Amino acid sequence: MGDIQGTFRVKRIYEPPADDDGSRVLVDRLWPRGMPKEGAAVDLWLKDVAPSTELRKEFNHRPERFAEFTERYRLELDSNPAVDTLVELAARHSRVTLLYAARNTEANNARVLLDYLLGRPAG
């Protein structure tokens, strides 16, 4: 995947856009509640990299299910071509900010995706 250690970062979509966000990519399957599309400053909405609907509903943002969610989501990512889209984006931009809507800033799909992209185990 090349040296992408400093390329990716995660951020809640409800935080204001910053000059150093680079390419802003929403990695949720559903558009965030209460967030107008005009104010989101999203460069790409990559729904296909999000967890499957089934997995998202089973997890339901419950911390006690996060370990299982992480394991299953990483398996989904193994065969997900949308991961290549993010890697290609990283090759063209010095920064890619993965945007998510979850309230929990640690136990969410964007954190799992970040760890997956960086090639280190989640947890």
Task: Give the number of helices.
Answer: 4
The string of secondary-structure elements, in order, is EEEHHHEH
Portion in beta strands: 5-15%
Radius of gyration: 14 Å
N-to-C terminal Cα separation, in Å? Answer: 21 Å
What is the total number of structural domains? 1
What is the count of β-strands?
4
What does the main sheet amount to? 4 strands, parallel
Please list the strands of the largest sheet in the order they lie side by side.
1-4-2-3
Walk me through this protein's architecture.
- By secondary structure, the protein is of the alpha/beta class.
- The protein has one domain (8-118).
- It is built from four helices and four strands; from the N terminus they run E-E-E-H-H-H-E-H.
- A four-stranded parallel sheet has the order 1-4-2-3, covered by helices on one side.
- Helix 1 (53-59) runs antiparallel to helix 2 (66-78).
- The chain is globular and about 35 Å long.
- The two termini are 21 Å apart.
- The mean pLDDT is 91.
Name a few traits of the molecule.
alpha/beta, 4 strands, 4-stranded parallel β-sheet, 123 residues, globular
Provide the fold topology.
Blueprint: E1 8-12, E2 23-26, E3 44-45, H1 53-59, H2 66-78, H3 82-92, E4 96-100, H4 109-118
Parallel strand pairs: 1-4, 2-3, 2-4
